[in-house]
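Q: Can someone sanity-check these two? First one:
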Amino acid sequence: MENELETSLRRVTEDDIAQLLRKEMEYGSSWRRRGGVGAFMMAARKWDRLEVSVTGKGYDVFAAAESDAREEGVLDDIGDLRRYLLLIEAHIRDCIAAKAKPDYPDPGPALQRAARRSTTLANRDEWSSRPGPDDDDVMPHPGH
């Protein structure tokens, strides 16, 4: 027989799994596109949002969550952070189990092109050095 904590944790984690599966259908594995640094920064941004929200309540996360009635408030940030960390951990554990390195695209060619452009563009004025329509491969849009 489950106790209250187990029931509560089960409800939260089952909801997390359902949300992650929906997002996977919508976005695929785009969260891994920029490798481990990008995955860390994705989680760090959620932590930063959460920190801003709780600072005004003396870092009392319970008080901050209770007083935040926004749909995308403290509780939403906590859930997003937990789900991001769950994705990251699951991916790392899967890679370890497969004895493989984490899979993400090699940024080398795009970074080399960006470096060449930056040295070529260094002598141009501000407007002529802005990225053009052919520069998507240097910094792809997060949704792609």
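And here is the second, same format, sequence then tokens:
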Amino acid sequence: MTAPDGFWLSVDPGKTTGLATAHPGSDEPSAWEMPLEGALDWAWDWMSAYCGRGDVTVVCESYVIGPATLRKGGAGGTWSLRGLGALEWMARRNGHRFVEQRPAEAKAFGTDAKLRALGWWSPSDHARDALRHLLLARVADGEEGLAAAVLG
């Protein structure tokens, strides 16, 4: 496995937010979860630290308001949407590339078996979802060593 060429932040935004980071010099990403407000503060600090670099990518789970969201009612169903908007603004403000991915696409590609095989497993559902998005984005970006490891 190879370390990434650039700096990566992957976020599964929601009331409980999953985060994952990867950077040059480290073969394994870090992943954890925290409440949205703390995650946004942390993400702003992280993105600001790399402001203006051309090798930073922020990956977020996309969010669509559907019938289930509307049934939840109130602000409870919009945590993800609010987090996604804030993260996109932060990334663009700091000059970073911003990528959105559909949850189903990341889950289908970044299976539990692949995460375990890579040594990327996390017991946290939200952190694991952030890792799924990180994996999909890095392979889609053309990281050959990572692609070979998961695609054979």
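A (reply): Looked at the second one. Residues 125-140 form the longest helix (16 residues). The domain at 7-151 is CATH 3.30.420.10 (Nucleotidyltransferase; domain 5).
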